[in-house]
Amino acid sequence: MTTLHNTVAAVTQRIRDRSANTRAAYLERVAAMAARPPRTQALGCANVAHAVAGLPIPDKLRIVQEHRPNVALVNAYNDVLSAHAPLGHFPDILKDEARRLGANAQVAGGVPAMCDGVTQGEPGMDLSLFSRDAIAQGTAIALSHDTFQAALLLGVCDKIVPGLLIGALHFGHLPVVFVPAGPMPSGLPNNAKAKVREQAAQGLVGRDELLAAEMAAYHAPGTCTFYGTANSNQMLLEAMGLHVPGTAFVNPGQPLREQLTREALRTVLGQGGTPCPPIGQVVDERCIVNAMVALLATGGSTNHLIHWVAVARSAGIVIDWGDFSELSQVVPLLARVYPNGSADVNQFQAAGGPGYVIRELLDAGLMHEGVRTVRPGGIREYTRRPEGDAQQRLHWVDIGASADEDVVRPAAAPFSATGGLKVLTGNLGRSVIKVSSVPDDRHIIEAPARVFDSQAALLEAFHSGALDGDVVCVVRWQGPQANGMPELHKLTPPLAVLQGKGYRVALVTDGRMSGASGKVPAAIHLVPEGLAGGPIARVRDGDVIRLDAIAGTLDVLVDAAEWDARPVAQRTDAQAEDSAHGLGRELFAGFRRNALGAEEGACTWL
């Protein structure tokens, strides 16, 4: 076993020390739940009867008389999300596999799953971040029937996987395995799609041309093929050992996909002879650090600097952006997948995929090897590629060398010596920036500010030509408490157009960008947010802002005494009303009111 890198060891120990009390309390609760008698034997007769009333008689007998394992299926299926459309028939596959093994599987519940691609730039996007916590609650409701010995969680996309994971960790006594559906086949290349979007932002192409490009890019069942939040989810689950190894990026509809889905049921039941451990024991501080390292090494989604803070808290583990930042100084960038490069996730998979990256990180001492996973072979199992045969038998093979060093590289010869994410601090607060796709000559931007109270206001200024020139666009009132912290993905094309004209451009906001935030420097997730009195609410048009992603600073270049004396702007009543009503946003008032800051995971339940 390779010696662990000193920085990784130090960050892990700091997290362990910081979390000592909360982690001990969590594990005590997990142990108490695990010590209870088998549930279908301990519950009241009426309770059990209700739980099995809808089942065929053979299934009832397996649960009630034979006391065979009963596996909960929590499904995020809908066919609005292309990535989740294949999940519609997964329960039948899993139930069939359970019966083959003399066990049983029940759909314990469905959870909501919204597509950010559909809601980008629309009022419904204000529900997106908080849908994570609604999904966690839905997972808890499903598992609260308490008649299960294990669970399979069916989901893929942005807030869905973190929500399922948060919910499952509150049932930490159960063995849990995640079941994805895989990415859609490659369509219109992501770079070509981005070019058409930029042309549309300039009025060079019309709606028909733009729609044709988008339809060619998003064209089939499966996850979108860029390396945004959804596909980052899959990378992190592999690094945490919560998948069947190598299952992340196998396309829907392939025979191997069904074989891996069946293997998930076998895995959670411990069919290899070694019981699948409870998820509360698998997800410890080492597992969380492994996820953080994998995120940094692949230039993954900035959204996970919010989501994985919340995931860790659900297991009694406390992490912050400082931990990410310190790890980023020693974790090399090993992958270039769009928007960090031209390859899509199918090309990433063909070049070596998650298994290649995990192997390189383990061999370099940058991941913990002695962690528990859902498989008996530990995290080394996740460095191999699955293959199947005509008899539906699975085996795993060595990945070997990178098949394309323009896509994945060894740790000894990385794309960059440091990771793809950085933390910025200064008199504007704390924020994060994804630097892996930003050109080197744009890592430092110093320019006058233009302040906007909404995404729409910035777009209007762009179309009027008012932003032509060096500019730092400041968009406030976009934090969790203000409006649910929507992604501001619609801003990427116009800002890229301005940068393409040669202007020095940056974005500063207390909101989020898409997991596919691109080549324009964007200081996002700024805390404290404007509505909480954060410094972003003091910025005025014309203030010079310096964003330095090399030094890790973000400052308004205003005399300190003047800055401290400057009043904090207040959101108008009309702006508040506009964020509070329509498309169900009224129902999320309590979420906005209770939300913690972005660095605390924007949690609504603590």
From TrEMBL:
Protein's UniProt name: Phosphogluconate dehydratase
Species, as recorded: Oryzisolibacter propanilivorax
Domain Dihydroxy-acid/6-phosphogluconate dehydratase N-terminal: from-to ranges: 68-379
Keywords: 4Fe-4S, Carbohydrate metabolism, Gluconate utilization, Iron, Iron-sulfur, Lyase, Metal-binding
Domain Dihydroxy-acid/6-phosphogluconate dehydratase C-terminal: 406-602
Main enzyme class: lyase
Family from the record: Belongs to the IlvD/Edd family.
EC code: 4.2.1.12
Gene Ontology CC terms, in alphabetical order: cytosol
